[in-house]
Amino acid sequence: MNVQAPKPHLVKGRETAPREKLVVVGNGMSACRAVEEVLKRDADRFQVTIIGAEPRVNYNRIMLSPVLAGEKSFEEIVINDHAWYQSNDITLHTGDSVVKIDRTTKVVLCASGKVISYDRLLLATGSNPFIIPVPGNKMPGVVTFRDIEDVNVMLRTAESATNAVVIGGGLLGLEAAHGLSLRGMNVTVVHLMSTLMERQLDPAAGYLLKCELERRGVAVLVDAVTEEIVGDSKVQGVRLKDGRILPADIVVMAVGIRPNTDLAKDSGLAVNRGVQVDDHMVTSDPAIVAVGECVEHRGQCYGLVAPLWDMCIAAAGYLTAKKGDGYQGSVTSTKLKVSGIDVFSAGQFSGEEGTEDIVLRDASRGIYKRVVLKDDKVIGAVLFGDTNDGPWYFQLMKSGEDVGPVRNFLIFGQAYAQGGSAADPTAAVAALSDEAEICGCNGVCKGTIVAAITEHGLTTLDDVRARTKASSSCGSCTGQVEKLLALTAGDAYSGERTQKTLCKCTDFTHDDVRRLIVEKGLQSIEGTMQELHWKTPDGCSSCRPALNYYLLCAWPGKYRDDMQSRFINERAHANIQKDGTYSVVPRMWGGLTSAKELRAIADVVDKFEIPTVKVTGGQRIDLLGVKKDQLPAVWADLNAAGMVSGHAYAKALRTVKTCVGSEWCRFGTQDSTGLGVKLERATWGSYMPHKFKMAVSGCPRNCAEATIKDVGVVCVDSGYEIHVGGNGGIKLRSTEFLCKVETEEEVLEYTSAFIQFYREDARYLERTAPWIERIGLEKVKSRVVDDPEGRKILAERFYLSQKHFQKDPWAERGWGGKESKEFNPLLRISGLTAEKEQAYG
Amino acid sequence: MGDQDWTDVGNINEVPRLGARTVKTPRGDVALFRTADDEIFALRDRCPHKSGPLSQGIVHGRSVTCPLHNWVISLESGEAMGADKGCTPKIPVRVENGRISIKYQPMSLQAAE
Known about the structure:
Chain A is of the alpha/beta class.
C-alpha cells in the first residue's frame, strides 16, 4: 500500500499560525482537481490530507476505456503522481475509507481505525455503479466498469475466455464492449431501451451507432430485458426475458451510476438523490463542502467531467474565502468518441410541440446532423460522424441567439453559415466566440487557450496541453487546438501542419502517422484509421498502401499484411503492363545466371508463348506479356529450376548490379560480384518505402554505375567505399559518400543499418535521394556511421525483420498456394453466341 | 425481365472485401467489386482512360483506383471522378441469399429476342 506517514508540517514562509486542516474524502478526479484549485488560489492556507479507498494515486477514470482497449497503460492515465502529493505537502492515505464523520468534534474515523481531525472537510465520494437486481448478479464473473480493478478483471478474463455480455448500451457499456472486442472476445451488448445511448442520441443517430458497432463485430440487442445471470459457481450466461440465453464468461454491468451518499447520510447531512449543496458547494454543514458525482445541485446530479470542474472552482473559492459567483449549474453537451466513432449531443431533441428540425444525412459518409430549433433559437443538436460544429451549435444554444438570419445554412456548419463559401475548418475555429468550449473533457474554452498562447508564447500542442489541459484527455479536440495555435501564434507556431498531410483522408502527416502507430501500438489499418480520426471509411489508394507499409515495418511478424491495400504489382507479384498483362522477372543473384537457369527461362518462354524477352537495366531477364492466370504456372516452372521472385514489381530491394571484379577483371580490386551476391542474399524480400537498388563496382572505374544507386559500393585497394542516395531516374542524382570500411562484413552491417534507418524514417514512396536531401547526410551519418552501438541495433532490427520477410512469394502463391483466387476469374462464361469478339458497351 | 436473363456467377464470399474478381464472358471481362460494407458492383473491366483493368485496382469507399494511371472510377455510376472525364459501362448485378448474378446481355440483344 502506498500509505505515507504524516509528515511534520514544513513551514513555507509562514512562521506563525498553524495551517488549517483540510481533509478530503475521496482521491478521484474531482477530489484532486478541487485541491489543485485550492492550491492555485492559496497554496499555504491548508494542511491537506486525502483519504482514498482505492490503493493508488489519482488517475483519469475517463481513460479506463483506452486501458481496456490496450491503447494506454495505467501509468499513462495517472493525473497526480506521488511527486505531486509530496511537492504539495499533501498527506495521502490510500486503501482506506472514512466510515464516520463526527461533526461536533470535527474528526473523521477511518476503516483502519485512524482518527483525523479537520477544520474543513471536502467530500468527493463519487458514485457507485448500479447493479441491476436480478438473480445471480453477485456471482463471480459479474463486474462493473468503474475502476482499474474492474479493467484488470476484464483483461484477465479476455486472456482465456471467449464470450462477454455487456448489460447497458450507454457510453460506458459501449466503451467496455469495444475494449473487450479489441481484446478478442465475442461481445454482445444487451440494452433495455430501443436506442443506444438514448439519453444522448436520437433514434437515427442511435441506429447509425448500432450499425457501426455491428460492422465492427459487436452484437447489439436492443429492447432486451435481462432476467437472470445464470451459472453454477461462476457466470455462464445471461438469460433474457424472451427466454434466450447468451453464453458469457464475463458480464459487465454498465447500466448507470448512483451518487455515493452513504457517508453523508450517516453523518446527518442533507441528502436527496445526492449530497445537497448550495452554489458554493457547501453542504448543510458550513464546514463541509462536496463536489463531483456525489452531489446534487439545484436538483441535478452530474456524471460528466466538465460540470465537475466548475464545481471544483466554486468550492475552492469558498474554501479560500475568495468567493466568486459560485456554481450556476451546467448545461451539458456531450462530445464523445464512442469506440472511435465521433458523436455529439446537446440540449433537447425529443421533438416536442413547437420545435423544428433541420436534418442533414450523408449515408455514404456515415454522417447525420440534426439541429433542433424553437422560435428560431437552437435548443438541441445531435451530430454523428462529423462533430466539428458541435461546439458552435452548443454555443448558439447557450447564448440563445436568434439564428433566423442563418437558418438556411445552419446545418452546413459555422464556416458556411457565416459566409465562408467552403467549409474551411480554420475559419470555423476562428469564428468561434471566446466562450466557446473547445475541450469538453477539461472544460477549456477558446478564450483561455488563446490567452495562454499569447501570454506564454506557446508554440506547440504539448505546450498548450501542459498549460491549459486542453486536448490532454481524450484528444478529440486536437485538430481545433492546433488550428487555434496556427491562428494565434502565426508564424511562431512550430506547426505540424506546415507539412503536407498523408492524403486527403487524414489531417495527420506521414511522420505523425508513423509515430502514432508506434506510440499507440496500432496494429491494423482499420484501427489506425479509427484512432487517428480518418475522414473516409476505408481510406484511398494513397493512404492504404502507406499504412500497410508503416504497419508492416513497425510490427514485423505480428502485423498481417493486407493484400487489398497493396498495389496490384505487389498483390500479383508481377508488373502490370499497359494491356493488363504482366511481366515476370526471376532473381539472378548479383546478376549471375547459369545455363540451367537460362534453359528453364527459355522453356518457360516457349511453353507459355511469352511474346517478349528483354534484358533489364538491373542485369536481369524480363519476360513480358504473361497473362495473369498464367502467373502461378510460370512461377512454378521457374521455382522448379531454383529461381525465385526478383521483386521487380515491389517497393523493396530490386537488384544488386555488379561488375565482374577481381575474379576476372584486370583492374578489379575486390570480389565485387561475390559481395553483390552476399548483399542481395542479405537484403532481398525486405519491403521498403520505395524501390531500392544497389550496385557493387570492383574499382573506381565504376562499371556497375554504383554512384546512381540507393546504395553503391565502390571497391578500392584498401577496402570499400559506401555511397548512398543516388538516383538514375527522373531527377539524376549522384550518391553522397557515406564512409569507407575495410571488410565485407562491415559493408553488410553498414548497409543493413542504412536500409533499416531508411525503412523506419522515410515516408512511403520517398526514394533515398529525396529522403537524404530532406533530412541531410549528417543525420544519416550520425545514425549509421558515428554511433556504432546504434548501428548494430538498427542492423539487428533489420535482420529480425528479414526473418519474417525472406519468403519467396512465388513459392507461397504458386499453384494451389495462398490466395490463388487472386489469379483466377470467378467464372468463365463461354459459348453464348457467335459474337465472341464483340465487346461490351 | 425474367429470371432467365440473370446469370449466377458465384458466392459473395469469393470476392474479397475491398477487392474484385472478374467474370470472363464472350463479350469481354466483367469486374465485380465488393466494398467494405459488402455491397457488390459490376462494371466492364476497362478504364475509360486507357482501358486499364479496373478489377486490379484498389477499392476504397464506393470507388476504385485504376492500376495504370490512378484514375478514380465511381463504382455506382462508372464515371471517372474528380477532374477526369469518362465513363465505364455498368453491368446489372444483384445479390440474393449471398449469390451474385449479373445480366450480361446488352440491352440491344434483349430487345431483339
